[in-house]
Amino acid sequence: MRSISTKLIIAFLSIGIVSVAIIFLTARWNTRQEFIRFLADQNQSAVVTKLTVYYQQNGSWEGADFIFIQEYNRPMPGMGQGPRMEMRLPYLLADKDGYVIVPNGRFKAGQKLSHEQLELGTAIIENGKVIGILIPVGSAFQGTPRELEFIERTNRTLFYGALIGAIIALFLGIFLSRTITRPIRELTRATHAISEGDLSQQVPVRTNDELGELARAFNKMSAELSRSVNARKQMTADIAHELRTPLSLILGHAEAVHDGVLPPTKENFEIIREEAARLEHLVEDLRTLSLADAGELSIQPQPIEPDRLLREVTSLYQYQAQKKNISLQLDAAPPLPPLEVDPGRMTQVLTNILDNALRHTPEGGYITLSAKQTGGRVELAVQDSGPGLPKAETERIFERFYRADASRRRDDGGSGLGLAIAKSIVQAHNGQVWAESEPGKGLKIVISLPIRFPSDK
What we know:
Elements: H1 4-58, H2 65-72, E1 91-94, E2 100-102, H3 115-119, E3 122-126, E4 129-136, H4 145-195, H5 210-258, H6 266-293, E5 302-304, H7 306-323, E6 327-331, E7 339-341, H8 343-360, E8 366-374, E9 377-384, H9 391-394, H10 418-428, E10 432-437, E11 443-450
Parallel strand pairs: 6-8
Antiparallel strand pairs: 1-2, 1-4, 3-4, 5-7, 8-9, 9-11, 10-11
């Protein structure tokens, strides 16, 4: 199988050869024709002059065929001195009335010529009067040896020029094919390296054309692939860590009770139960994310007012907020257009965000749940008065198992998947979710959902 480089070289060379061949043949034919036309015009002028002089000297056209014999049947070198009357003459001579005086073999003497044929001729004039008409008649070119040699030298020069053009086309084809295929070869090598596990591959972007765009797309893909693989490795390590903690507690207490180290009391069994519940919750979170990744997350939309959704979630967390002396506020002034969402799933989104807010809001702080309409969308927001996060971390808090700085570590039982699950559910509703924060000014999670009225269903 030929490489692209070889195919391009052949293509460029073929185009070059065909182009040069066409130019060579056209130039050769045109040069010959123009040279013959030049000689014919030159000879015709000379014949007209001689015929004029002949008529002036003789007063008639009698014997004028001698001029043609003398002019066109000159003996060639090495051929003796006798005229060759059988040669077809390139001209015929007619009188002013259009009757043939000197035939050329195709027309007979005395034959009347048509007006169209006479129009092709050159008038022979004496004292302002037409005395004859010299008419060219097509015939094969029979030049002198010097004339033929000139045409041959011209053709040879054109041939050498065509040959040089073909060689240049070959070298240009090699150069251009290598230039064009160089990015492709680099991409091929980088692709093979990635397939062997080296995800750090980046190729140079050499142009701004389609190949340059392909190189940029490859670099972006390679970077995203590397980031994704690293994220999955980190997630696997995080999952193992999150599973190991409750499993260690369960196994440790179970073995201690079994060996009699700990008494089989209700408190010890409660510890085992709580850790098992924590383990079950983590597995359920992972299952939810897996379904979202596969596009199989169950969504059963129905119309619900945003303020009602926020009130229901607020009532669920009122007791927990009071225990921590945190003010739970609601800011959703009706009327707001209803949203067509899955109430259960959206409640899960808001509870995951509220869990995170309660965990990091200090005692005496506040959490505000708000809703407002922005264009054709409704924005639900949860604002806390916690320590906040720098911008670099707000862009990553929706990653799975991502841990922010020490003020946001989940030391009290969070799975590290709540915000990732919230993002997946919001995206399944064709919505968007993002975080806004500044250090010391709390964290605000915003959920933007499209408005769909019940009449639009």
